[in-house]
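Quiz preparation item.
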């Protein structure tokens, strides 16, 4: 069965062009002109991916994401003309998995959809075998995280993290595929940070990569999402 994409958007021209490209790539498409209709279709159709605008009548995109996350884990990609970092941060905070700014190239949207589906399918295929019976230890590839003892291992060897590095690693590792902004990650460590602001996150990310990546210059786990932040890939 083909994957279903739900488009929640009030601009009929955008719906038309996205539907054209998606159907041409063998996706099934469902559309809703506002957040309320989108929620109804979400529960009826159980889409694999959701594309949502932010500025819509009756229920805006932020409220839609908040409600959608109560009933669905499907990846949500925001497509919006709003390009302020605060809008991106709020959308990601509420549970979106990506953010594309209008005007956009439909090819970019297709690439984004394929990428999030690959990550979701890979996690679904390997997830259950990577969790210990009591749920305290999670393994992704060569990396293992004991959530109770807060011990991280790579290839069975203990990885030594600072307190700030561990907080950042734990947040990313616990939600694979989800993008976190530098601001979100800095909020985790701001109370114990010795300055540097959000720019210090880049230093911590570099340190984490040096400890868990086979090639820190070409990271396979802690991945940069240009213009947004970072995500963990298993």
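Solution:
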């Amino acid at each position: 069965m083909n994957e279903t994409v739900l488009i929640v958007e009030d601009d009929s021209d955008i719906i038309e062009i996205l539907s054209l490209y998606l159907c041409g790539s063998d996706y099934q498409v469902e559309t809703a002109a506002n957040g309320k209709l989108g929620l109804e279709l979400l529960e009826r159709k159980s889409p694999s991916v959701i594309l949502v605008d932010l500025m819509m009548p009756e229920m805006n995109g932020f409220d839609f994401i908040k409600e959608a996350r109560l009933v669905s884990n499907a990846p949500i990609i925001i497509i919006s003309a709003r390009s302020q970092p605060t809008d991106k941060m709020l959308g990601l905070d509420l549970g979106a998995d990506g953010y594309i700014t209008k005007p956009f190239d439909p090819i970019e949207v297709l690439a984004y959809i394929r990428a999030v589906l690959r990550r979701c399918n890979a996690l679904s295929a390997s997830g259950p075998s990577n969790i210990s019976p009591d749920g305290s230890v999670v393994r992704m590839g060569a990396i293992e995280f004991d959530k109770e003892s807060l011990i991280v291992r790579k290839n069975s060897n203990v990885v030594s993290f600072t307190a700030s590095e561990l907080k950042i690693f734990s947040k990313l590792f616990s939600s694979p595929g989800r993008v976190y902004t530098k601001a979100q990650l800095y909020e985790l460590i701001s109370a114990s940070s010795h300055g540097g602001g959000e720019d210090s996150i880049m230093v911590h990310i570099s340190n984490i990569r040096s400890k868990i990546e086979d090639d820190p210059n070409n990271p396979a786990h802690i991945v940069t999402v240009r213009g947004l932040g970072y995500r963990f890939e298993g």
